[in-house]
Structure formats: structure tokens, C-alpha cells
Amino acid sequence: MSSATDRGDDEVAVGPFAPTDLPEVAAFVAAQQADPTKHIAYLGTETDGIAAELAALEPRGLEAVLVARREVEIVGVLAADWSDDPPRVWWFGPFVASRETFDAVADALLGAGRALLPAGVTQEEFAVDRRNEAVAAFARRHGFEPGEGSSALLATDLAGERLTSSVGGDQDDPRDVRVEPLDDRTRAAVAALHDRLFPGTHTPGDRLDREPDRVVLAATRDGAVLGYVAAERQEDGAGYVDFLGVDEPARRQGIGRQLVVAACQRLRDDLGCTMAHLTVRESNVAARRLYTSIGFLEERVLHPWSRGFRLD
Ligand SMILES: CC(C)(COP(=O)(O)OP(=O)(O)OC[C@H]1O[C@@H](n2cnc3c(N)ncnc32)[C@H](O)[C@@H]1OP(=O)(O)O)[C@@H](O)C(=O)NCCC(=O)NCCS
């Protein structure tokens, strides 16, 4: 499949690419990612990591990566990751090298990307650095609606002083609370707590610990589930803390902090991650304080956009 767009004398062709061109495509994306005014959420900044993420796109891998070229030069990239439940595509991009041709190239990429989707996938979502004004304008022009901003936080050293010393400290390690991987006694209660705290999110409670390379831990007291954390090792090797929840009556006892620290330790020890990142709503002061109190630093603010459904 291929399409072309005319803009003055320049003809841009959009289509899939040969897998042997992956290093070139990933290097192009990495160059855009390094610029905050072009940055797209959730794809990292390192060429190798981006190549791994693109190859792992669900369900089509590199077939869902579209490249815009003017003659042989790459001028734009858009990648798609989609699911049937929810029937949603997550766009990575559009990455466009030049401001002058942004609209034409981005529109051609989006048109070609939508043509890849199964008919039932009607919801679209992506998130960008808040400094990426070109993609924000593109989103508005295509009928996307903005959601609430999120803070992207990063812990660059999972063996670092604060993350390790928090565990075992008197204040943050309530001795009667156990933090352990899910088992048959805790799985259903964790799923119910997750579905109550994060209704309608991309991973429902009964699927929390189904994927490989995931860390899902439950905090219990006398066998009762009080909280949980879900994290994963991503394709680029970084850890990602996906969900954290503590039952209302058990809050402000250090359980959330204990869960995150334990998850980071497992990301490091069991899955070989040296760093971890996460996103949290800007308005979620409690969680932001928790994460920064154990050494996470704010890297950027991300703005999500949706079409065909509302982000809540
Ligand atoms: C965010 C959440 C997990 C915190 O769990 P918790 O067990 O209450 O947190 P902790 O007791 O470990 O708190 C650790 C630190 O976080 C900060 N914090 C936690 N709750 C806070 C609140 N309501 N207001 C301000 N700061 C808060 C504090 O700095 C606290 O340290 P301190 O008690 O020594 O002052 C819990 O409020 C929750 O489940 N919220 C709903 C789900 C959610 O927002 N998850 C995070 C996004 S993925």
C-alpha cells in the first residue's frame, strides 16, 4: 500500500518499509524524539529501544509503521498499536522532520495509517509532549479532543539510595503488611480493586498479570488485600510502573510507597531494568508526591488526545 501527496514540487510517498531499513527509520524517530517540540509519548529516545518498540507493536509489528519519503529521504513516520478490546488504536507520531511540510506529510501518514486498521477499531488515542504544538494543532484539525495532562516521571537509577533505603525503613515498611506476587488467594481481590480504581482502562483487572515480563504485587494484611502495583519491563529494557492502587481505608500508611519500591526492586533484580518510568495525572498530587519522595524526577508533561471516545 502506498499513497502520495503533492506539495509544490515535492512529492512525498507514504508506505511500509523494508525491515532492513529499520535502523534508518528508528534513527529518524530518535532524532525527532530528542526535540521536545516534536516528542511523542511512550516511545523512548534511544534508537535501539525505539527499533525494539516498533518491532513489538500489536498486532502487526513493523507492518504498522508507515514511512513518508521524498525520493529516498525519510521525512515522516507514523506507527500504530491497536487492540480489539477496547477497539482502539494508539498512534505513535506523526513524526515529521520539517515544519513547512508538516500538515501535508502528517495527513498523508494518518490516512495511510487508518487504512491499516480493522473496521471495528473506531477509537484513536495518542499523547505528546506539551511543547509539541505542531501535533496538537494536527490533533485539533482532525477532531481529536484533549484530555488531562500527565506528568512523566523517571527514576534513572533503580539501585539508587532512596529507592533502596526506603525499604526496611521503619516509617515506610509497615511490618504487618506483606508485599508479594499475586496468587490464588489475592488475584480476584486485586482485580476488583483495580477495576474499581481504574474503570475502563486499557488493561482490565483479570488481565493484569497475564503478560510476560510483568511484576504484579499485592499488599496484604492478615490475608486481606489492601493495595497492588503493576509494572513491566518494556521492549527497550526500561521498567514501567503501570498501575498503583491502595484501598481507601488503608491509605497514608506507607503502603503505596512500599509497593512502588518493591516493584522497582523486582524490575531491577528479576527483570534487569536499570531505570523505570511512569506517568501520573497532573492533578494526582498524592501519587506525584509519593513518586518524587522515593527519587522519581519529572521529565516532561504529556498531553493526551482522543477521538471516538472520551478520556476521563
Ligand atoms: C496514590 C496512592 C496509591 C497512595 O497510596 P498510599 O498508600 O496512601 O501512599 P503512602 O501512604 O505510601 O504515601 C507516601 C507519600 O505520598 C504522599 N501522599 C500520599 N497520599 C497523599 C495525599 N492524599 N495527599 C498528599 N500527599 C500524599 C505523601 O508524600 C506520602 O508520604 P507521607 O505520608 O510521609 O507524607 C493512593 O492514594 C491511591 O490508590 N490513589 C488512587 C489510585 C491512584 O491515583 N494511583 C496512582 C496513579 S497510577
Summarize the structure in words:
The protein is an alpha+beta fold and 312 residues long. The chain has 2 domains: 141 residues, Aminopeptidase, CATH 3.40.630; 152 residues, Gcn5-related N-acetyltransferase (GNAT) (Aminopeptidase, 3-Layer(aba) Sandwich), CATH 3.40.630. It is built from 8 helices and 14 strands. Strands 1, 2, 3, 4, 5, 6, 7, 8, 9, 10, 11, 12, 13 and 14 form a 14-stranded mixed sheet that branches. The longest helix has 15 residues. The protein is elongated and about 70 Å long. The chain starts with a strand and ends in a 5-residue tail after the last strand. About 2% of the residues have low confidence.
What is the second-level CATH architecture of the largest domain?
Answer: 3-Layer(aba) Sandwich
Strand content: 25-35%
Order of helices and strands: EEHHEEEHEHEEHEHEEEHEHE
**Structural class designation:** alpha+beta
CATH first level of the largest domain: which class? Alpha Beta
Number of strands: 14
Detail the poorly predicted runs.
168-172
Whole-Å distance between the termini?
Answer: 35 Å
Key traits:
single chain; 312 residues; alpha+beta; Aminopeptidase; 14-stranded mixed sheet; 8 helices; 32% strand; elongated; binds coenzyme A
Tell me briefly what this model is.
By secondary structure, the chain is of the alpha+beta class. The chain has helices at 22-33, 47-55, 102-116, 133-141, 161-166, 187-197, 255-269, 285-293, and strands at 3-7, 10-15, 65-70, 73-83, 88-96, 123-129, 145-146, 150-155, 178-181, 214-221, 224-233, 239-246, 276-281, 297-307. Residues 168-172 have low confidence and may be disordered.
